[in-house]
Amino acid sequence: MIKKFKNIKDTKLINISELAKKLNLINSKTGKPSTHTLRFWESKFSKIRPTILNGKRRFYSNKDTELFFLIKFLLKDQKLTIDGAKNIINKNIYNLDDFKSSSIKALYFKSKIETKTKNLLKKIKTLKNYGKKNSH
């Protein structure tokens, strides 16, 4: 299902190519974003609803982007089938407190938290090192 936006001032949207780059879906031969993969997933997962602007250009909200990250994790990392991924997504569990820590979605949220934590620690370390260089 495709939605049209009435008020896009407050919504940050990214186009399909930017999303493919964020998801690291790059064609190894051409080096271009694999947008066809996103369009395929969009056809299989009804919860993905791109915004169509300027004719037929697809744009995705933060919610859509997060859903694509989850789909990629389920299909590529956990090696689930499309139907298996649909079953997990349709459980409407969106944070770590909503389910048992042994579930597949828990692995996704844990890996996401780990990545954010590592990035923050890198930034802190960079700031600490920068302060040491300038204090002499």
Could you characterize what this model shows?
- The protein has helices at 16-22, 35-44, 62-77, 82-89, 104-134; strands spanning 14-15, 51-53, 57-60.
- The protein has 136 residues and is mainly alpha-helical.
- The protein has two domains: 1-90, Orthogonal Bundle (Multidrug-efflux Transporter Regulator, Chain: A, Domain 2); 95-136.
- Residues 1-9 have low confidence and may be disordered.
Brief overview:
The chain has helices at residues 16-22, 35-44, 62-77, 82-89, 104-134; strands at residues 14-15, 51-53, 57-60.
How far apart the termini lie comes to 60 Å
Major sheet strand order: 1-3-2
What is the typical, i.e. mean, pLDDT? Answer: 81
Low-confidence stretches are 1-9
CATH architecture of the largest domain: Orthogonal Bundle
- Per the CATH scheme, the topology name of the largest domain is Multidrug-efflux Transporter Regulator, Chain: A, Domain 2
Task: Tally the structural domains.
Answer: 2
Q: Briefly note the structural class of the backbone.
A: mainly alpha
Helical content stands at 40-55%
Largest sheet: 3 strands, antiparallel
**How many helices?**
5
Strand fraction band? Answer: 5-15%
CATH class of the largest domain: Mainly Alpha
Radius of gyration: 18 Å
The dominant shape is: globular
Tell me the total number of β-strands: 3
Order of helices and strands: EHHEEHHH
Question: How would you describe this structure in keywords?
Answer:
single chain; 136 residues; mainly alpha; Multidrug-efflux Transporter Regulator, Chain: A, Domain 2; 2 domains; three-stranded antiparallel beta sheet; 5 helices; 3 strands; globular
